[in-house]
Design goal:
The protein has 170 residues and is an alpha+beta fold. The protein has 1 helix and 10 strands.
Length: 170
């Protein structure tokens, strides 16, 4: 009987130790899930998402994601750029760049184009406050095969957004 009793006691001790360990781990996990932590970082901190772009919708095929740099409380902007295929090198190709104003921003947006990697020319354009898109003409340089164009949108109160437009030339 003593042997059975010793084995039973040992199993109960092992079971109790495991149960205590699991309880301790669960308690530590709950402590890490408090609404805020003193440092503002770590598992218990809340992230301020009020200035983040809306990513609930996936970009359409051919659309490029936008990088948003808007640390102001004056709203923000985002860009929607197409993939562009230039069929006629002499005439070029028109493309429509769309913007989205968020957080109450209602001003104009200036669009600039970094085309050095694509071998094309695109003139800067300003989208007025009452519009949300602009057509631009993409004109390839000689022997260009296309590439990536960085589109930068700038609002008049410091808003800024960037997107990459893929340009191919046939």
């Amino acid at each position: 009987m003593d042997l059975c009793s010793d084995v039973l006691d040992e199993r109960m001790n092992t079971t109790m130790k495991k149960l205590l360990s699991l309880t301790l781990v669960a308690g530590l996990m709950l402590v890490g899930c408090t609404p805020t932590s003193p440092s503002g970082k770590g598992p218990g901190s809340k992230q301020d998402t009020s200035k983040q772009p809306d990513t609930s919708k996936q970009p359409d095929a051919g659309k490029q994601p936008t990088k948003v740099d808007s640390s102001k409380d004056d709203g923000q902007i985002s860009l929607d750029v197409p993939k562009v295929e230039v069929a006629d090198k002499d005439k070029g190709e028109a493309a429509t760049i769309k913007i989205k104003r968020q957080g109450g921003y209602k001003g104009e947006v200036k669009l600039e184009f970094d085309t050095k990697d694509a071998g094309v020319k695109i003139e800067p354009v300003t989208i007025p406050a009452d519009k949300d898109e602009a057509k631009v003409m993409i004109k390839p340089e000689k022997e260009s095969k296309g590439g990536k164009v960085t589109v930068t949108g700038k609002g008049d109160k410091g808003q800024k957004a960037e997107a990459t437009m893929d340009v191919t030339i046939k």
